[in-house]
Amino acid sequence: LVMAVANSFMTLQHYELALKYYLMLEGCASNNDLISVKIARCYSALKRSAAAIQFYYRALHARENDIDSRLTLASLLIEENREDEALALLSPPPNSALLNETDVNRSQPWWLNVKVKLKLSHIYRTKGMLEAYVEEVYPIVHESLTTDSMHQKVKQRKRLTENELLERVKVLGDR
User: Which InterPro entries match (predicted)?
Assistant: First the structure.
């Protein structure tokens, strides 16, 4: 019930009230990671970046593959001029090659997500790290162009009926 009230306040953009209810739930709920994300969103909406960053980190500790939270946290870090921290947050873990091979059943790791790669490339570009920027962007652009060229269809021309052809011959003959 408390969660429903907090969610309602959040929907109505009454972030201060929503925050109050989410903070009540913080320690006692079973889905603490979700509550941490909601608290972080409230703090972010209230322009209290330091607290929002703290709660996003807490949420990511529990939900490592939450791409939206990771991207939002990176944006907050960039706003706070903590680009190096944002780079570390979005960069693949050191043992990422090992993780890719061993976990076949799992879905795509967060560091291979296109949104993460684009955000990372944006940070590289703004920091003037052009080689790293190209290294991130090139595979995305290449895949996009390859996909587009493979799905390109030759537009079929509409076949004209015999009557339409005869009409066109008459029109041209009248000239």
Answer: Tfc4/TFIIIC-102/Sfc4, TPR-like_helical_dom_sf
